[in-house]
Amino acid sequence: MAYKFIDNYKEQGARKRLVEVLKKKGIEDENVLAAIAKVPRHFFFDETFWNQAYKDIAFPIGAGQTISQPYTVAYQTELLHIKKGDKVLEIGTGCGYQTCVLMEVGAKVFTIERQESLYERTIKVLPHMGYKPKFFLGDGSVGIASDAPYDKIIVTAGAPTVPDLLLRQLKIGGILVIPVGDEKSQKMVTVLKTAENDYERHVLDTFRFVPLVGDRAW
Ligand code: SAM
């Protein structure tokens, strides 16, 4: 893929229109909308496909994976209720678009990807754009114990169940957002850790993610 890091009026205008689309679909958090308006999503696309970058659609990024739909990224980010300086574990870095949105809303991000080709690309692209999360290569279904506990955990691939180790790595008062279901569709689930071994779960809208593959996953 040939990346080009140029952000013209055309792309900036397209981002503003995307924000209006997301507002109409129900995204309300001003910080999340400002992050979507700021992160140049076309930087994750080959220039040939820049005309697709600000459509509210998922798009292939190689290795059989996708850049998530902007609505999905905004929806999951909104559910995390991120406060400036929150330690956030992201499982499924992919191309890193969600990572940038999390950092724009003030999170300190720890992000893990299991596909080496995506990991290798993202560790170059994100710092070049000015985003410096802590990158990991490996199976995020077991979390990252070395940096736990986290204020928030976001899983950007569909899981069969909520992985137990992720709950353990969440601070009390912390929130986990994860799509749970079968290979075809998942419900977005939020888990608030109210006390050690005590959780409040909410099951929300239906989405379709690529599968979370790993020890505590598919
Ligand atoms: N967050 C990305 C974005 O900003 O568009 C989209 C991520 S894509 C929908 C899901 C990613 O999760 C894929 O890159 C996939 O390789 C990764 N993945 C799946 N299982 C994983 C696991 N156990 N650990 C880490 N990454 C995983």
From TrEMBL:
Catalytic residue list: 68
EC number: 2.1.1.77
Location, primary (coarse class): cytoplasm
Keywords, alphabetical: Cytoplasm, Methyltransferase, S-adenosyl-L-methionine, Transferase
UniProt-annotated location(s): Cytoplasm
Source superkingdom: Bacteria
Top enzyme class: transferase
A Gene Ontology biological process term: protein repair
Keyword Metal-binding: no
A GO molecular function held by the record: protein-L-isoaspartate (D-aspartate) O-methyltransferase activity
UniProt xrefs under InterPro entries: PCMT, SAM-dependent_MTases_sf
Pfam families in the cross-refs: PCMT (PF01135)
Catalytic activities: [protein]-L-isoaspartate + S-adenosyl-L-methionine = [protein]-L-isoaspartate alpha-methyl ester + S-adenosyl-L-homocysteine
Gene Ontology CC terms: cytoplasm
Metal-binding among keywords: no
Family: Belongs to the methyltransferase superfamily. L-isoaspartyl/D-aspartyl protein methyltransferase family.
Function of the protein: Catalyzes the methyl esterification of L-isoaspartyl residues in peptides and proteins that result from spontaneous decomposition of normal L-aspartyl and L-asparaginyl residues. It plays a role in the repair and/or degradation of damaged proteins.
The name this protein goes by in its record: Protein-L-isoaspartate O-methyltransferase
Gene (name only): pcm
